[in-house]
Amino acid sequence: MLGIDMKLASKEERSKLRKKREEVRKIRNEKTSELQQSVCYKSETEIESESIEVDSDVFHDEFPSKERRFTTKKIWITPRLCAALDKAKVSDRQAMHILMATVEALEIPADNKVLNRTSLQQLRQNNRHYQFGEAKSEFLDNVRITLGRSNVYKLAVLVSYNGTAKFLGAPKIESGTGKNIAQAVHNTLVEWDISEKVVASSFDTTSSNTGLQQGACILKYTRRL
Q1: In angstroms, rounded to a whole number, what is the distance separating the alpha carbons of residues 98 and 19?
Q2: How far apart are CA 67 and CA 194, in angstroms?
Q3: Which domain holds residue 196?
Q4: Which of 98, 115, 142 is the last residue of a domain?
Q5: Coil/strand/helix, residue 54
Q6: What is the pLDDT along the chain (225 residues), one digit of tens a residue?
Q7: Distances (CA, A) of 53 to 45, 50, 202
Q8: Where are the annotated segments for Disordered (predicted)?
Q9: Are 138 and 157 found together in one domain?
Q10: Within a 10 A sphere around the Cβ of 113, how many other Cβ atoms?
Q11: Is residue 23 part of a domain?
Q12: Are 180 and 208 in contact (CB under 8 A)?
């Protein structure tokens, strides 16, 4: 008896299987190409010439048409509500919790209403821009900024103590000389009854304030007013 070469037999078996797969693939590709050609050969005129009689009532009964219904969502967040949320410094996320709880408590149907954080944020921003524009237009239309042509010197006087500061006033002065500045500061301190409690002064380094002879600081502390 002759021995059987198992490796050679396995190799031949794999070769046969591979050939069969190739033949099946070839037949499948040929059928697909024939189908595509038959579809392409059928012209548009032939398709249009074919008529199919269908009872319209049966067609509508078996295949009911689906009408697309668009529901318009209503914006119920008013400018007054946006302003109230801004005044109370409520964030958009916190405002959504409050609004949702309010809608549930009042049993308001919210299906057709705009109710989400992004829309609320956009509405609040738009309301801020609108209110700013309104305030700006009213200010420019109703208020006269310049009431005269004359120039007036004014001096701002502030006092600080215990880590706090207070604006005392802005008295008018005839000119920006050291004497006029010192006199205006002194009168303001006397008016507030704190002229004897001042221990230091702070000012810009102009000659009218720091002059050795006629500076406001020298005149104030040497009491040559």
Answers
A1: 73
A2: 83
A3: 153-221
A4: 142
A5: coil
A6: 445 567 777 888 888 888 888 888 888 777 766 655 554 444 444 444 444 444 444 444 444 555 555 555 666 788 899 999 999 999 999 998 998 888 888 887 777 677 788 888 999 999 999 988 888 777 665 566 666 777 778 888 888 888 888 888 888 888 878 888 888 888 888 898 888 888 888 777 777 777 777 777 777 767 655
A7: 18, 10, 102
A8: 1-21
A9: no
A10: 13
A11: no
A12: no
Per-position DSSP letters for 85-123, written without gaps between them: HHHTT--HHHHHHHHHHHHHHHT---TTB---HHHHHHH
Count structural domains, the chain.
Answer: 2
Residues 157 and 135 grouped into a single domain: no
Q: What are phi and psi of 157, to 5 degrees?
A: -120, 120
Residues 179 and 134 placed together within one structural domain of the fold? no
Same domain, 173 and 192: yes
Instruction: Give me the residue label for tokens 């810009």.
Output: 204
Which of 163, 164, 160, 154 is CA-nearest to residue 184? 154
Q: Is residue 171 part of a domain?
A: yes
Tokens standing for residue 97: 């919790």
Structure token digits, residue 23: 């033949």
Instruction: Give CA–CA dist 67/59, Å, rounded.
Output: 16
What gap in Å lies between CA 203 and CA 32, rounded to an integer?
Answer: 95
Pull the structure tokens for residue 111: 């299906």
CA distance 167 to 121: 38
Q: Where are the beta strands (DSSP E) in 48-207?
A: 153-154, 157-161, 164-169, 172-173
110 closest CA partner among 82, 85, 80, 74: 74
Residue 69 inside a domain? The answer is no
